[in-house]
Amino acid sequence: MFNLETVPPGEITTRIRDYEILHQQEYNRPADFSYVYTHMKRAISALAQGLKIDKIGIMYWLHDKKQEHFHEIEPSHLSWYTAVKERWIREFIMATPPSSYTPIDRYRIISLLLREDLSSWFPDQTSVKTLLLSRLTN
Hints:
Blueprint: H1 12-27, H2 33-48, H3 55-66, H4 75-92, H5 103-115, H6 125-135
Helix pairs in contact: 1-2, 3-4, 3-5
């Protein structure tokens, strides 16, 4: 097992995923949320400071944790998550996705939006998610 304290902010999203998998295999239980979140906050802070951080990786991590740990996640991080998700909804559903995204980033963003409950924005999620799937090939 490795120590997250030594992981640079630019590698945190990948290393946290690795850490959580290894911890689950080694101890047969999830890693301590507060410990992992402490280090994810380092990545979020670095992103806010303009450093090159995997924003999509942070979004995936927050998506996976927000149901079970909603009250433990800082409100500012939940607000940031919602703002980014709303921007992606505008970019990928309500308009043609910008060409500034790499193909892999487009895939990761669309995959995350497909996991989301979008009923607050769209009553007919089936057609919206079908549109998202079509964006994968465009």
